[in-house]
Amino acid sequence: LKMSWFWFYLPLHLLTAACLCHSIKAPTTSSQQSFKTDLFNFYHSLILADGKETTVHLLKDIPKRYYFVLEEGRALAPFTITVTPCDVPIEWSILVHKASASFLGKAARGDHDTQEVSKSQNAPSMVSTIFNYKGNSVETYMGMSSHSALYMLEFLSTERDTHITVYLTTDTTSGHIYPELPTDPRIDVIGIGHTTVTLTWKHSPSVLQHRENIQYCLLVNEKHNYKSLCAAETAIRSSGMKLPPTLALSLSPYLLEPQQVMILSNSELSIINKASSGEVRQICMGTKNTYTVPNLSAGTQYYFDIFVVNLLTNASVAYTGTFARTLEEPEPKVTEMKEGKLIQVVLDGKNQKFYNLQYQARHKKIQFTFQLCRGQVQVHITKNGKTVALENISGLRYFTLKGKLLDKYLVQLRSTEESNSSVKVQVSSHFHKPLFPLLPESLKIKSFSKLRTCNSVTIAWLGTQEESKYCVYKKKIEDDQVWMELRSADRCSGPETRRKSEKVLCKYFYDVNLQRAVTTETIKGLDAGTLYLFDVYLFGPSGIPIRYHSKVVKTRKKC
C-alpha cells in the first residue's frame, strides 16, 4: 500500500496552502460533521507524511487535524499510527471518510463541482470514528483498510499548550522505526545500597537483531517516571535545564550547557543535568541489560526509566518504569574530645567522608586549635546544631567561641583533596596555657641568592617576642624529588622523624621589636651544584614543634 501524493499536482497556490496548519476552534457540532465540512477545504490542512515522525504543536483547547489517504491496491491494506504525548495528557481520535477518495482525486485535478461536494457532505453514514484515546501514554493504532479512504487525525490538549510526535506508516515490509519491547517490559531492582541501585531488564528483540544500531539509555530522577523520552526531555527543559538540540542520549558529540556535566567512562555516556528542582541523570550503556547506578544519595527515593533507542532514526520506546529508595546512611561515628588533649586525625580523600568530633563545654569561652599536617582540610563547627565556623584551614588556625555551659559542639573534618589529609585538633578553655608556641607573622624561609657559594647558603626566618628554640635541618635531594618532597611533607612531624646527620644546629632568639625579630644562618660544608631541602622547627613552652615551610636551595656549580 502506498500513500497518495496527489498534492504534488495541485496548483502552486493550493500546494502552498496544503503546507499550512489547519487549526479550528472547538466545534459546536460533532467531529463527523466537522470532517464533512472540511472535505472541500482539505488542502488547507497538513497532510501527514508516511514513514516519518512528525512533531505536532498543540494550543490549549484548539483542536488540530491531520489527513492521510489510503489508495486501492490490494485486498487488505495495513497501516500503523503511533502518537507520543510529550507533556500533559491529550485527546486524539481517528475518523475515516470511506467515499472521499474519488472526490479527493477530482479536487486535486480541480474538476470538482458544487453538487459533488454537497453529496459528499450529506453522507453522514460514510464518516465514522474508528479510534479514540485520552491520556499521556504512548499509544499505537494498527488498522486494515479494504478500500480507498480519507482519514483524519484530530488532536486536542485541554490542560495547556504542548507538543506531541506522530508516526504513520503503510509499509509493513521494511520494518518499524521504533525498537520493539520484550513481552515483559518491566525493570527489576536486584540490588540496593546506600549510594547504588542495581537494575536489570529483559532484552529488546531489536537489540538481538540490530545490535549495532540499538542501545539502552537510562533516566534517573527524584520526581516520577516518564512514559516516553519525549516527555522526559520536556520536563527537563521546563525545570530550567537545557538539552542539546539532538537527542540528549545520543552518543554523537555536542556542546554541553553550563548546568550539564558529561562523564564518559567504560563506554558509558552519563549526562548529569543540575537544577534547583533536583538532578536528572541520563546514562547510555550500549546493549548491556544490567546496570548499577552509582553516586546516589543515601535514604533517597529515585525513579528509573529505561529507553531502547534506534540510533539511525532517533526513535525510542520506554520500558515500564520503576523506583527504589537507597538505604539510609548509618549514624556517623562521633569521637568525644577531652579538655586540653591533642589528637591527630587522618582523613580519607577518596571517600570524602566527614570525621566527627564532639565536645560539651565546661566553660562559657573555649578555643579550638587546628594544625594542618598534610593535604587540604575543611573544618565545620556547629554549636547546638547551628553553624559557627566553616572554612578550609592552612597552617595553624584558632577558633575562639563564646556560649553557655554545657553547649554541645560538633566538629566535622573533611579532606578536600583526593589524597589523604591529616590534622591535629585540640579544644581548651585555658587560654593562658597555649599548647602551641607563639607564631611569627610568616613561616616562610628566605634564601639569599647573592650569598650562595659552591659549599654554603644563607637562609633567614622570622622570630617572635617570646624567647624560643629554633632548630635547622638539611636534606640532600634530586631534581625530580622536589615536588614530592614539598607535597608529601608532614607539617606536624617534629625533628624526631629526622636523621641525626640532617641536623645543622639549634639556637634561641627573640626580639621585643618585631621589626627586628629576624635571624639568619649560613650553612657550610655543602656540595657544589647540589639541591638541598632546609627545614626550621620552632619549639614553644609545651615542647610541641611548629615546622616552617620547607625551602629548596641549590649551591653554585662554579665559584
Account of the protein in words:
This protein is mainly beta and 559 residues long. It folds into 4 domains: 105 residues, Sandwich (Jelly Rolls); 121 residues, Immunoglobulin-like (Sandwich), CATH 2.60.40.10; 95 residues, GOLD domain (Jelly Rolls); 110 residues, Immunoglobulins (Immunoglobulin-like), CATH 2.60.40.10. 10% of the residues lie in helices and 42% in strands. It has 7 helices and 36 strands. Strands 12, 13, 14, 15, 17, 18 and 19 form a 7-stranded antiparallel β-sheet that branches. The chain is elongated, with a radius of gyration of 39 Å. The termini are far apart. The N terminus is likely disordered.
- Estimate what percentage of residues fall within beta strands: 35-45%
In the CATH hierarchy, what is the superfamily of the largest domain?
Answer: Immunoglobulins
Q: What share of the residues lie within helices?
A: 10-25%
Oligomer: single chain
Please identify, by name, the CATH architecture of the largest domain: Sandwich
Radius of gyration (CA) equals 39 Å
What structural class do the secondary elements suggest? mainly beta
Instruction: Please count the beta strands (DSSP E, at least 2 residues each).
Output: 36
CATH fold call of the largest domain: Immunoglobulin-like
Terminal CA distance: 98 Å
Number of helices: 7
Number of domains: 4
Tell me about the biggest sheet?
Answer: 7 strands, antiparallel
CATH class of the largest domain: Mainly Beta
Shape: elongated
Mean pLDDT: 80
Low-confidence stretches: 1-29, 100-112, 116-121, 242-267
